[in-house]
Amino acid sequence: MKTLNHPDFLYKPKLDYIKKFAKKIKKINILEFGVMHGRSTRMFLDLCDELDGTLNSVDIHNHKDLFNHPRWNFIHSRDDNFDLINKIENKEFDLIYIDSLHEPNHVKKILYFYYNYLKINGRVFIDDINWLPYVENSFKDSEYSEVINRKTFLKIFN
After folding, report:
1. Can you tell me the distance from the alpha carbon of 80 to that of 21, in angstroms, rounded to the nearest whole number?
2. Residue 46, helix vs strand vs coil
3. What confidence score (pLDDT) does residue 1 get?
4. Architecture of domain 29-127 in CATH?
5. Which pTM value belongs to this model?
6. b/e for 29-41, b at 16 or more Cβ within 10 A?
7. Partners of 76 in beta bridges
8. What SS3 state is found at 28?
């Protein structure tokens, strides 16, 4: 039984929102930062199968064996190692998903760098910049997450 605190329950609405945008793009080219458990990676690979697309995922942890998929290119690296973009064949992305180091200056740095590789009408999705679920007495009450998400939001929009 899934509870309110179950990660899949909390993750699904976010992925559904991204999927709604992505389903409109044939031959979609996705750049993903942060693989962790592979939830977003699995969804992106399903979209790539459906839309004849490609997924490039970057993570500091080696997740290369998480999926064996012909549409997936895993790059074991920091996302702020900007030489890694040279390892990617098609550098024009329809969708960039940032879910790596959740630190304001870092998120801003990679957003501003990789934004240059976003196609016209492409989208960037940044995970964990909403602080509201983390405020005191809310269902995900976490002072640290509330503060860091708020700081990240303010950093990238100021």
Report:
1. 26
2. helix
3. 30
4. 3-Layer(aba) Sandwich (3.40)
5. 0.84
6. bbbbbbbeeebbb
7. 59
8. coil
Answer for the pair 107, 152: CB distance below 8 angstroms, yes or no: yes
**H-type alpha helices, 23-103:** 39-51
- Decide: residue 61, CB within 10 A, 0-12 exposed, 13-18 middle, 19+ buried: exposed
Strand partners, 58: 33, 75
pLDDT digits (tens, 9 = 90+) for 135-146: 788 767 778 777
Query: Are 73 and 57 a contacting pair, CB within 8 Å?
Result: yes
Q: What is the gyration radius of the CA atoms in the chain, in angstroms? A: 16
Which tokens hold the place of 109? 């740095």
Q: Are 60 and 74 in contact (CB under 8 A)?
A: no
In the block, which residue shows the tokens 């693989």? 35
Q: For the chain, which residues make up each domain, given as ranges? A: 29-127
